[in-house]
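PROTEIN DATA CARD
Card holder: DUF2255 family protein
Chain length: 120
Origin: Chryseobacterium paridis
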Amino acid sequence: MNKQMAIQYVNENEITGIKAGLQRDTFLDIWMVVVNDRIFARSWGFAEKSWYNTFLKDSCGQIKCGDQIFSIKACIPPDLNDLTFSINQAYLTKYSTKQYAKPITEQKHIDKTMEFIICE
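Structure generated from the sequence above:
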């Protein structure tokens, strides 16, 4: 049930809060998309202390969907090459009015794709 609630929230909202690792106190609002009932996000920035790099060191975290907080495990999707087209389309469709929608489908951002798995 938690997974479906999170998926529905991500589908219906442009911004979802994320907390990477267990050391952070606050949530960062980022773009997320759903493909095949799986939640994905791409890092926009490439800072050393980004949420993406934090998850590479510690896969535990949380996403905030409205008033609900879900524990997650983050991973680089093993089937990323197969999903890239669908994830690109999800970003372009969901964020079609945003100026960064097309750039986030560029290879440098594709390489920073992370999947968030809800811990039930």
